Amino acid sequence: MTTQTDTEKEIMEGKIYAVMSYWFFLCIIPFVLKKENKFAVFHGRQGLVLFIFLSIGFLFSILPLIGGLFYKLTLFIYMLCLLFGTLQSLRGRYSKLPIIYQVSQKINI
Fold first, then answer.
1. How many domains does the chain have?
2. Domain that residue 98 falls in
3. Long-range contacts of 27-35 (CB under 8 A, 24+ apart)
4. Given 43, 54, 61, 72, which residue has the most CB atoms within 10 angstroms?
């Protein structure tokens, strides 16, 4: 019989919420349903920053000439971070996305 440490158990319980946190507005679910789970909240914070980043990119898309290009660049960066964050949370890792992590640590929830 194998025993899991508290950290491994916490990761297993929060894994699905961590995965959801990178998918658009679903980033709020870990804060509502698993706010005591450090793993889910860690990824939820990064997902929230990414969602805000995507929303700002969408707002800038109304600018003539550069708006569409800026939004496409924003969407590309968002998709890369989404894929990386999703894969890392599925693996049960606390992966820090560059810049996104530093901003996410300033969020008090």
1. 1
2. 6-103
3. 27/51, 31/109, 35/109
4. 43
